[in-house]
Specification:
The chain is α+β, with helices and mostly antiparallel strands. It has one domain. It is built from four helices and nine strands, in the order E-E-E-E-H-E-E-E-E-E-H-H-H. Strand 6 and strand 7 form a beta hairpin. Helix 2 runs antiparallel to helix 3.
Length: 169
């Protein structure tokens, strides 16, 4: 699922419409689960600013987001709770290296989704490749491994395919 519709809300008193920026998000099709269920490319490192747009873009069929888990090394100043339209989302911090560039979105009894978090400063071309690779149901790589490939400057597609990822379609 790609987020394609902007969230709109009227500004108080002036009658104008405010359009929240679309989250840069790619999810695996049909809820397929692998090591990653997609990727998210926030515009900045302020979780309290970025998380409401991410949550608002998710299909209501995934359930209500009750909690997210993020890496303490990437989000050291993350608040313990974030307000999103109509709800409060608990934020849990973890010190695990595997979670450093990932966010786990917990929808209670419906399930959890693990998303690669593409660093906000990532160049657009590299970010687009990471978003696509993480959302591919054939992707066997974890968030740290995908980012390591992008940072190393290696031909990520060739390495990904050599490690079991889908080849050209």
């Amino acid at each position: 699922m790609d987020a394609t519709q902007p969230a709109e809300s009227p500004a108080p008193d002036d009658g104008h419409t405010y359009r929240m920026p679309l989250p840069r998000l790619r999810l695996t099709p049909d809820g397929s689960h692998g090591p990653l269920d997609g990727a998210w490319w926030p515009r900045c490192d302020a979780l309290e600013l970025e998380l409401p747009a991410l949550v608002g873009s998710l299909d209501p069929g995934v359930g209500t987001v009750t909690r997210v888990t993020v890496g303490n090394s990437v989000w050291p100043d993350a608040p313990r709770e974030v307000m999103a339209p109509g709800q409060v989302i608990e934020v849990a911090l973890t010190d695990g290296a595997a979670e450093a560039h990932a966010i786990t979105v917990d929808c209670g009894t419906v399930g959890c989704w693990e998303l690669l978090v593409v660093p906000p400063e990532e160049p657009a071309g590299a970010a687009a490749l990471l978003l696509s690779a993480a959302a591919d149901p054939g992707n066997p790589l974890s968030a740290p491994r995908l980012l390591a490939l992008a940072e190393s400057g290696l031909d990520g597609q060739a390495v990904w395919e050599s490690e079991g990822g889908a080849g050209p379609r």
